[in-house]
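Let us work through a complete example step by step.
Step 1: write down the sequence.
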Amino acid sequence: MKLPVYLYGHPVLRNVSEDITPDYPDLKKLVEDMYSTMYESEGVGLAAPQIGRNDRIVVIDADPVAESHPECAGRKLTLINPHVEVLDGDAVSRAEGCLSLPGLSENVRRVEHIRLTWVDEDFNPHSEVISGFLARIVQHECDHLEGKLYIDHISPIRKQLIRSKLSNIIAGKVACDYPVKYAPRR
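Step 2: predict the structure and record it as tokens.
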């Protein structure tokens, strides 16, 4: 089932997510719905806060960007309770977008090498060093679990320049090709 994507301004996007346990109700169905939502929205990643849940769940399918980023080929990950450790290396600036911020794209500095630890849908533990654009996708999605958005990484001047676009998202003045949930009216 395709779920609505919560847009910028909705409070759920600013909450820190909680780890889940093996008795989480209907986890496999939720993960399936998250993948469906991500594919229908033409994203390469989706975090649970983006569908209104503050649970540490992320789905990623980076294969659509493999032509320009070979490290993404065949990389489909279901991350339960993921945690990112930054490894040594310089930060690189690249454009990022987000399903929760439709119509926007900004350059964000992120490190190129991380260690990711997580459990899969069956709660089997995993740990992997991830590099390149895949590391960027993972960091972007895991930021959602910490109540952060990629615009939190841009300069105050850039944020000021996109302020009216952010206000339009909050006001519901954006067009999306996927179902969305706007911030509650004040």
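Step 3: interpret the result. The first helix runs from residue 27 to 40.
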